[in-house]
Amino acid sequence: MSIQNNLTQIKQSLPSNVTLVAVSKTKPVTDLMQAYEAGQRIFGENKIQEMTEKQEQMPKDIAWHMIGHVQTNKVKLMASYVSLIHGVDSLKLLEEINKQAFKNNRIIDCLLQIYIAEEETKFGLNETELVELLQSETFKNLKNIKVIGLMGMATFTENQTQIRKEFQHLKSIFDNLQPTTYNLQPSTLSIGMSGDYQLAIDCGSTMVRIGSSIFGGR
């Protein structure tokens, strides 16, 4: 199967309100360009340096999403161009994104990563930490970021019931978010990957991150 065919099939299976992020990490620019030529304009990477190298080589109408864990000291490398940062899991990281966005005269969209899995390896905020962050004066004073929603990763398991439960839990947290300040405008729920995106959409996802089903295995 070609990348183009894979993309077409997946796009046809997605409801119109769901955004597709093509997860292109570790894939060469030639593969990304095949997806680009098939009409894909949103790509997700999990390493900032790799994303920056690709961004420099590829057309400028691409929206680059940082979907991996973000190290504070690397934010400056992507602040001039990144379209959405998915895995924001601390106020400290938000402050750094805000600082680098200010330097680049930009407002950078972010998703807060919520910890929903039953695995210790995943990053994210719990519900209490989320509330504390959003109610803090520090957050309210960040003028160069905008939190546009939440992101989460389910436990790596074959158990569909458990995954559904975790997705629904995140959806309920998302539904309780109110746009309180201009930098909190929740509209995006980023859940679902190649293996579980249909289930995620059933649970209310508005953004899915799909890699192997488009580009093939690693």
Notes on the structure:
By secondary structure, the chain is an alpha/beta fold. 39% of the residues lie in helices and 19% in strands. It has 10 helices and 8 strands. The chain has helices spanning 3-13, 29-37, 48-57, 75-78, 91-103, 127-135, 137-140, 160-175, 197-202, 212-215, and strands at 19-23, 42-45, 63-66, 84-88, 108-113, 145-151, 184-190, 207-210. An 8-stranded parallel sheet has the order 7-6-5-4-3-2-1-8. The longest helix has 16 residues, at 160-175. The model has no long low-confidence stretch (mean pLDDT 95).
Offer a few descriptive terms.
single chain; 218 residues; alpha/beta; globular
Sheet having the most strands: 8 strands, parallel
Strand order of the largest sheet: 7-6-5-4-3-2-1-8
Cα Rg: 17 Å
* Helical residue percent band: 25-40%
How would you describe the shape?
A: globular
- The helix-strand sequence is HEHEHEHEHEHHEHEHEH
Straight-line N-to-C gap: 15 Å
Tally of DSSP β-strands: 8
Number of DSSP helical runs: 10
Poorly predicted ranges:
none
Sheet-strand content, in percent, reads: 15-25%
Average pLDDT confidence is: 95
Q: Which structural class do you get from the secondary structure elements?
A: alpha/beta
The quaternary organization reads as single chain
What are the SSEs and their pairings?
Blueprint: H1 3-13, E1 19-23, H2 29-37, E2 42-45, H3 48-57, E3 63-66, H4 75-78, E4 84-88, H5 91-103, E5 108-113, H6 127-135, H7 137-140, E6 145-151, H8 160-175, E7 184-190, H9 197-202, E8 207-210, H10 212-215
Parallel strand pairs: 1-2, 1-8, 2-3, 3-4, 4-5, 5-6, 6-7
